[in-house]
């Protein structure tokens, strides 16, 4: 019965749901923890492996011990504009997570949702208001400054074959200067342990690496990055995604 539940979302198939309800009464090995675990496979993640935001969600799920049903979305073919996907996400962006009848997009929102709903502890996103505020600041910095600087500089070159813009490159350097300051005397991005801030930043910084950006002159970033690659669950898959993205530069 447990094997069946691990494959199928039982609540969408009434006969199986009834069978599992009976098993709960007669089988002492069944518990709500195993029942909850079987719903993890019902979470669909629409993604592309090369996308840094998508990779940050995947690493967060890995850190939580969650399994995602990953669904490739072919943006070049316009699959994000299909009516069925627009019902899930009217902004037609990735990553998009579907958990039962609930859908959410924007990678950092997804990461926080997963931690708050499925985290056994709050270590990745502590409940302490001050600690959480610092983590949120780092997440917003990643979204609005660091990752944005990557997109503003590299995307025109990749997708429009535009020449490199020196002014946009300066914004990358400014962003790394900020990050280097944040990490002064710090092993982690926001506190003394790994949090979702580290995971989001790791997805971005590793993408900078395959793009050929040299951040060795930012010693605090380089030191943090070396550690984050080692301690973050799912980094190997993240790196494979980075290598996929690197093909755009070939």
UniProtKB/TrEMBL annotation:
Which residue ranges does the record assign to the GST N-terminal domain?
A: 41-122
Q: Which GO terms describe its molecular function?
A: glutathione transferase activity
**Gene3D superfamilies per the record?**
1.20.1050.10, Glutaredoxin
Annotated membrane-spanning segments are none
Recorded hits in InterPro entries, A to Z, give:
Glutathione-S-Trfase_C-like, Glutathione-S-Trfase_C_sf, Glutathione_S-Trfase, Glutathione_S-Trfase_N, GST_C, Thioredoxin-like_sf
Domain of life of the organism encoding this protein: Eukaryota
Biological process terms from the Gene Ontology for this record are: glutathione metabolic process
Residue intervals of the GST C-terminal domain: 128-249
User: What's this protein's name?
Assistant: Glutathione S-transferase
Taxonomic source organism: Glossina morsitans morsitans
